[in-house]
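The instructor's notes for this session suggest beginning with a concrete chain rather than abstract definitions. Hand out the sequence below and ask the class to guess, before any prediction is shown, which regions might be ordered.
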Amino acid sequence: MPSVEGMTTHEIPFLTLNNGVELPALGYGVFQTPPDETVPAVEAALEAGYRHIDTAAAYGNEAGVGEALRRSGLDRDDVFLETKVWISDYGFDATRHAFDKSAAKLGVETIDLLILHQALPSRFDLTIEAYRALETLVADGKVRAIGVSNFMPDHLDRLLESTATVPAVNQVEVHPYFRQPDVLAANERNGILTQAWSPIGGITFYRDGEHTSTLKDPTIVAIAEEHGKSAAQVMLRWHLQQGRSAIPKSVTPHRIAENFDVFDFELTVAELAAIDALDTGVRGGPEPEDVTLESFGRDIPEA
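After discussion, reveal the predicted structure:
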């Protein structure tokens, strides 16, 4: 099971993946960040202390991430870069070329974590071939760790039956209103780190019959007031204390910095349980089984 190390006040906790690679548990995400806003947003994140940036080929902003890294003056080895292969580039040769496109846009020779963005249930053969390509990229020294995103337990089972490398990470939608306990359990059972996208319910979630977002949830707000923290900080702390990686996103500098300031308090067992109990079982993102090339395919341009 991935382990948490070094979670001390004001320090970035590191998570050790199943292949020994370490990544900062709290990352900065750029989902839906327009390309022209990506550079200043990532610069603000790096200035705030983030050392883990999560992007994807399908986001169209990998080049902005790379430019921000260059402008930061930080050594390449000091920043953990994670990106994703889109379903349109699945297949052995296509996925190897997807690495070339992403690396060129990021302006790097090595990608720290490369993951498959979705399972492709209707063409799982292409999913398998794509993952086998990732395995060869590790063997070639071009990628340090590989994983998946939005894989449900049956997808993981099918992948593990046909490939040699257990994914280091499964990045899935996890927040107080949608915990996916079956996915969390499958990841833990297989020694796969759960990485939470939309970790504070950022797609804007509403309970049935109410208009309450996670940020305004009475339980979370009360816990936040108890600790002198924001609701977002409480949710991020919840992820970290339960051993997950979280990748919040914002383009507002003070929010970016606030989301990073989560290492100086600790939630109680009762508070963690109270947040767990908020789960509604309602997904915000697309149903993984509904992802097809016909509905979701898009060309990923060359660098």
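Then share the key points. Confidence is low (pLDDT under 50) at residues 1-9. The domain at 3-283 is CATH 3.20.20.100 (TIM Barrel).
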